[in-house]
Amino acid sequence: MNMPQGYHPYQYQPQQQPDEDSVGSWIGTFLLMMIPLVNIIIIIVMACGGMGTRAKQNFARAYLIIMVIVLLIGVTVVIIGSAAGWLSTDVLHSYSSNY
Q1: Which residues contact 42 (CB under 8 A, 6 or more apart)?
Q2: Of the candidates 38, 48, 47, the residue with the CA atom closest to the CA atom of residue 66
Q3: What are the boundaries of the region Disordered (predicted)?
Q4: From first to last of its 99 residues, what are the pLDDT tens digits of the chain?
Q5: Which of 27, 35, 41, 52 could disulfide-pair with 56, CB 3.0 to 4.6 Å?
Q6: Hey, how many other C-beta atoms are within 10 angstroms of the C-beta on 19?
Q7: Residues 13-19: contacts with CB within 8 Å, 24+ apart?
Q8: What are the start-end ranges of the E strands in the chain?
């Protein structure tokens, strides 16, 4: 086996620290997310890995998933509410026209 001199396969290798975001970086991210329309663009860019570290990428992906779930729930509530309103007015209209 050709190993470098002084190398041992079980020698302690210090682990590299992952890139960490500073508190100021997170504050800037949240400030950008407060601006309408810019927040959607920033989240999509972060989710695709174009900005920030792995932590921000995972955060953006989770945020997008939550946004889609909330949007689907909202659309479902509007559809069910509209159908219930339409049915109730139809029932009330037929009831009042008979008497």
Answers
A1: 29, 32, 33, 51
A2: 47
A3: 1-21
A4: 566 666 666 766 666 666 678 899 999 999 999 999 999 999 999 999 888 889 999 999 999 999 999 999 999 999 999 988 887 876 666 666 655
A5: 52
A6: 10
A7: 18/53, 18/54, 19/53, 19/54
A8: none
The per-residue b/e assignment along 49-66, b for 16 or more CB within 10 angstroms, e otherwise, is eeebeeebbebbeeeeee
- Give pTM, 2 decimals: 0.66
> In sequence order, which residues have a C-beta less than 8 Å from that of residue 57 and are 6 or more positions away?
46, 47, 49
Tokens for 42?
Answer: 């920033």
Residue type, 28: G
Residue entry with tokens 């026209």: 97
Q: Are 57 and 29 in contact (CB under 8 A)?
A: no
